[in-house]
Amino acid sequence: MRIDIITIFPEFFSVLDVSLVGKARQSGLIDLRVHNLRDHTHDRHHSVDDTPYGGGAGMVMKPEPWGDAIDAILSDVQDVPAATDAAPLLIFPSPAGELFTQAMARELAGESNLIFGCGRYEGIDQRVFDHFAVEGRVRLVSLGDYVLNGGEVAVMAMIEAVGRLIPGVVGNPESLVEESHEDGLLEYPSYTKPSAWRGLDVPPVLLSGNHGAIAAWRREQQLERTARVRPDLLPPAN
Ligand code: 6GU
């Protein structure tokens, strides 16, 4: 998968050299490139923002640098044969976007080209989204109902969630199956040795060797935990 990131803080993404995503980049499973939005400004001050039409607090990111930066990536991507012929997907992290979920991470893991545009300030001029949605694919995506200063940290989270679902990135694909959210429920609690620690025992059923009983206990724990912590995830009872 090829991933392009546009940001005014390229240094944010140096951490993507490490851990699982770093390894996936080294092995060629992920081709990740970070672009500085300011390289696509044409004024002496390299300005990327201006005051909002209609007034109000804060600054809005100007459309021209975004247009030029995205054009440059799109023409570069089109020179490289892709695994599928789907157009690149443009993703803009935004608290006004649709909610990022495990299901969306799975969908994105099936793409061959993702382009992330990290906005700052009060957001990006709406015409950037409207322009690229005419001929391309654009999604605004939110991590949750809170506000970050910019899209960089959100993009990092999305890349980690998507990257680990790309075949070959996680060594043992079985470890992806029984995680929180994969079956719509929170995961069951896990234990390892020793069987007794600081007066706390591992639930005896896990030591029983009875695989049917263990599976039933884990399922029950998932349902109990989900009902207690995230009742919104359960299907409506009737
Ligand atoms: Cl994706 N961006 C920003 N700026 N704030 C957020 C967010 C994204 N998701 C939750 N809050």
UniProtKB/TrEMBL annotation:
This is tRNA (guanine-N(1)-)-methyltransferase. The gene is trmD. The keyword Cytoplasm applies. GO terms for cellular component: cytosol. It is an enzyme of class 2 (transferase). It catalyses: guanosine(37) in tRNA + S-adenosyl-L-methionine = N(1)-methylguanosine(37) in tRNA + S-adenosyl-L-homocysteine + H(+). One of its GO terms (molecular function) is tRNA (guanine(37)-N1)-methyltransferase activity. PANTHER family: TRNA (GUANINE-N(1)-)-METHYLTRANSFERASE. InterPro entries: Alpha/beta_knot_MTases, tRNA_m1G_MeTrfase_C_sf, tRNA_m1G_MeTrfase_TrmD, tRNA_m1G_MTases_N, tRNA_MeTrfase_TRMD/TRM10.
